[in-house]
Write a structure and sequence with these properties.
Layout (H helix, E strand, L loop, with lengths): L16 H30 L8 H21 L2 H24 L1
């Protein structure tokens, strides 16, 4: 396995305790921020016709999540690609909700 410059862990070595702790924090915040976005999705789908929700912004978030997904898959980094799958679902839910309810 090759390692790109700046990789946090060299092949054949174990991540440090600090690296493992930071990875846990990243995973936790990925979940927390996705949960914080769920009310936006619910509002778009159940509230009055969505106004003020930017399709350009949510489309940019979707493109970004897709790019990060590819990067996470290339790096085989579950912290990145699993979070991106969640963000892709949330972004698509908001975009479809706006398009179908305007």
């Amino acid at each position: 396995m090759s390692v790109s410059p700046g990789s946090p862990v060299e092949p054949g070595t174990r991540p440090s305790a600090g690296h493992r702790a930071f990875a846990k924090v990243l995973r936790a915040f990925s979940i927390v921020t996705m949960l914080m976005t769920v009310p936006q999705v619910v509002t778009v789908w159940t509230g009055p016709a969505p106004r003020g929700v930017s399709l350009i912004s949510w489309s940019a978030y979707l493109v970004s999540a897709c790019l990060w997904l590819v990067y996470g898959l290339q790096r085989r980094d579950k912290t990145i690609y699993l979070a991106c799958l969640g963000w892709i679902l949330l972004d698509v839910a908001v975009i479809l909700g706006v398009l179908m309810r305007v």
